């Protein structure tokens, strides 16, 4: 499905990111793995049995413009093109009301979740536009479609991802480039463990049960549930889809 394609995946060593990398690699893509830890990226490549020449691993803090420029340049040096960007790196905020939210925490969340997405699109599109081809999939959240008390920074950041996705899609449609976003509900991975524990003071299982009551299908999404939608949007099967925000939410949006 992705033979001859080159994909960049940010947040590659996280739960959703690693599930996306697995599917892309199995379907023939060459990959740039981007994450904050070289050690974790190397472990991911080893665990997935990625071969030399099939991937490169580039550590980066996506909130830093120079790091984004670097992973884009490294991809061009290694593979000569960029066909797909999975803008997936993300950071959860501390669970506090607005009046108690430290400004440094707010800025950190915006830096990774918003500036990281913006810079990724900015510098990848500089290569996609001349080729008049490419696909970008951003990871938003259902928190980007509603209010989430206690998660002001995270919620604001994901609303911003929605706006960036729609704006970019309109700007580059004339070049045949598609830009979409996925909006997951709670996913059964490390980020939700952190949020659950923060809400309940370490009694995360209690929070998990309460969250699941609000999901019609009665469970959290798996990393693979989200990866399946990302892979579809990145594929030619979604050739007429752009500017969309696709909920993967177990029915939450139907309420």
Automatic annotation (TrEMBL):
Keywords: Oxidoreductase. InterPro entries: NAD(P)-bd_dom_sf (IPR036291), Sc_DH/Rdtase_CS (IPR020904), SDR_fam (IPR002347). Pfam families: adh_short_C2 (PF13561). The keyword Iron-sulfur does not apply. SUPFAM superfamilies: NAD(P)-binding Rossmann-fold domains. GO terms for biological process: bile acid metabolic process. GO terms for molecular function: oxidoreductase activity. CDD domains: SDR_c. Belongs to the short-chain dehydrogenases/reductases (SDR) family. NCBIfam families: PRK07231.1. This is SDR family oxidoreductase. The lineage of its organism: Bacteria, Bacillati, Bacillota, Tissierellia, Tissierellales.
């Amino acid at each position: 499905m992705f033979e001859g394609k080159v994909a960049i995946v940010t947040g590659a060593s996280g739960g959703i990111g690693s599930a996306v990398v697995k599917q892309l690699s199995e379907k023939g893509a060459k990959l740039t793995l981007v994450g904050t830890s070289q050690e974790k990226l190397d472990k991911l490549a080893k665990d997935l049995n990625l071969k030399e020449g099939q991937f490169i691993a580039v550590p980066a803090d996506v909130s830093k413009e120079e790091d984004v420029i670097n992973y884009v340049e490294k991809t061009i040096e290694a593979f000569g093109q960029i066909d797909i960007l999975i803008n997936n790196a993300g950071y959860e905020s501390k669970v506090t009301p607005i009046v108690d939210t430290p400004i440094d925490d707010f800025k950190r969340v915006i830096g990774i979740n918003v500036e990281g997405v913006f810079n990724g699109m900015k510098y990848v599109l500089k290569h996609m536009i001349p080729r008049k081809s490419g696909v970008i999939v951003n990871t938003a959240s259902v928190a980007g479609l509603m209010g989430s008390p206690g998660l002001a920074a995270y919620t604001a950041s994901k609303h911003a991802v929605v706006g960036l996705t729609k704006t970019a899609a309109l700007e580059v449609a004339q070049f045949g480039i598609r830009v979409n976003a996925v909006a997951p509900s709670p996913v059964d991975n490390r980020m939700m463990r952190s949020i659950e524990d923060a809400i309940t003071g370490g009694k995360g299982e209690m929070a998990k049960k309460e969250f699941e009551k609000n999901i019609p299908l009665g469970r959290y999404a798996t990393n693979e549930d989200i990866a399946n939608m990302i892979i579809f949007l990145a594929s030619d099967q979604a050739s007429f889809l752009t500017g969309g925000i696709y909920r993967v939410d177990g029915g939450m949006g139907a309420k």
